[in-house]
């Protein structure tokens, strides 16, 4: 994957137009009988200029893959987008991406195309996935006119579904990371957060296989059941 | 890629490199090699109890590093089918080296102990790293022993900074004594023998029989005495003026043993012989030390012949300097404590001799030492534990003997204190009437000691059951010891109580293999003596006493127990190594305290250690747990 990025940077620098095949972008997968033990999954985290998908923008994308229950570090995605026009004054303190980095970042269009190719249509996991999904889908639509929906699953739901009795003291990524004693190398760095989320997913997948949840659709069912249970409990 | 700024690497790659850099062998590897590892690594999760690697998985395909958590090695132990933990691998440690390099399946089941994350690279990347990185190759091919080397190297280089050249005392004697020794027959006149020495410019000549067995040695010093005292003419056969039965060592024994003999008996030359006892060379003090400037023999001789107490006092600072230089020259901790003990013995003997010269009590006695001095395990921090064993001359009661010996002993205790042996707070000293006893009284004393087995007595066992004579006739002590050992062997209850007492001091590890800090010291400190060494010393003592091992030294006791088949040879080695490493870390701490002019203490903060030492200390404590488990099993405690 690093080789690919280098290639791609090289192509950009040498002035050639991106060689992405717009018509043949990978088709998103649906939740079917893919076995969790062997499937490739994407775990993704975005840094944005704010919390409102209607007006804020994506500035960094970090993602790792889980392939056959392992995280291979030669298959990851870690890019800052080039968007010097954006106002980042509100959030620069959180993610530490300043104007200079944004100017040096990568062309948005190219980066997104590259992301789609790298994701290869695989299901996407994120912590509080709705947030990342809205931002990414909006950005994909605005920039590339791409409107196919990936399968998104929320790690913030998966965790309590498998560990209902965990006393985490909260529902945030930090709470769960602390609960499992994970070390997050740099909080609010998209790639580091994505890795922490992926580590939590490894723990969930291990538990899933032991409790008879073997496929993506079974996982999806388990989540649906869990959400319904929570709604009932709230009533 | 290597030349690019570090920010050019993805955040997660950088994070893995940062993690690796904190652990050996990665800490000594180049960044480009760490990047190679990080970029090709795979992160995996193993829940508590999951099998990570198993013998039936076939040849090992990946090289693993524990990123978080622990991995336990399991082996089924014989008949009862119970599993036994053979090793534990914690954060930053690697596995499975031997199987991966041997391209075979692992022989031990590797299981996660607690939730664990591992980083791993494939066989191909492993081989690439192996050929690219020297520290990595060195580590993988030599396994943990290269870790131990790193510790020793560090201990040595610390001491080295103040000294210079290096030459290991582990070198076998054959390497020193290669040249042809100058020999002659017993009937050769002294004049001719000296001429032969002169021709070859050597200071000694060995007198051999027909089979080339050394029967005597004649040195320039002997010549000087002979001429000065006009004892004999130069035409006398050399056999009449030689020193008979010269000290011989086998060629495979090392320089350290030669140095110890020289220091103890003040020899300047030692014959080196082969398996058949035939002479193959001579080593002199100069051969051993000319390159090294380690003045052990000279120092021992100066102490042993010091004319006044004040000379002895002034020589003590040189002992500390010597310890520094011994560490620098590759002496291991076992060697260094023995050297300290040897020099202490010489000092004690000299203090006694000087006092006898001044004020002879007129009654022969054996000077006993107890505890760490008895075990020959003294470090620079030492206090006096001694006593007197005497045979009452005819017509004298023990009380009358004591009347003469006690004032003498009191002066000796006081003078030893001036030489740096702190007075014993518990009054375990020869000037205490309860410890200045006749043979019969000591016998009674031990009978009461063993039969009563009060808690107080058990506490004293670490002192009085590690006993040695440093001055006076040895035979009375030997006879006493034999009787004491016999009684303990027959007294199963006493053994069991000793064992229970030995288990009071637990190695400072928590259930989760973290350090358990000392209850009485400063925050976050470990007591290396009480928490680290004592579990070994006390456990080994019980086994030694129960099995008739007379040696008092812990390492010698372990050797002897292994020879008797009480300890498995591999276990004994692991325990000796663990014990020595704790001792080495303790001694280095002492040297550092001396440099900073701080009072010596046995407390250290493990956070002050580098990760490698911390890891080794933890593994050593785990070995202490194992030896205690053996004791628990033996006495069903």
UniProtKB/TrEMBL annotation, chain A:
GO biological process assignments: DNA replication
EC number: 2.7.7.7
Keywords: Exonuclease, Hydrolase, Nuclease
GO molecular function: 3'-5' exonuclease activity; DNA binding; DNA-directed DNA polymerase activity
Exonuclease domain span: 40-210
Catalyzed chemical reaction(s): DNA(n) + a 2'-deoxyribonucleoside 5'-triphosphate = DNA(n+1) + diphosphate
Top-level taxonomic group: Bacteria
Top EC group: transferase
Protein name: DNA-directed DNA polymerase
TrEMBL record, chain B:
GO molecular function, one term: [protein-PII] uridylyltransferase activity
This protein's UniProt keywords: CBS domain
Entry keyword annotation includes Ribonucleoprotein: no
Protein name, as recorded: Cyclic nucleotide-binding protein
Domain CBS: 177-233, 242-301
Pfam families, per database record: CBS (PF00571), cNMP_binding (PF00027), DUF294 (PF03445), DUF294_C (PF10335)
InterPro entries with a match to the protein in the record: CBS_dom (IPR000644), CBS_dom_sf (IPR046342), cNMP-bd_dom (IPR000595), cNMP-bd_dom_sf (IPR018490), Diverse_CBS-Domain (IPR051257), DUF294_put_nucleoTrafse_sb-bd (IPR018821), GlnD_Uridyltrans_N (IPR005105), RmlC-like_jellyroll (IPR014710)
Sequence ranges assigned to domain Cyclic nucleotide-binding in this UniProt record: 25-130
SMART domains, per the entry: CBS (SM00116)
Keyword Repressor part of the UniProt annotation: no
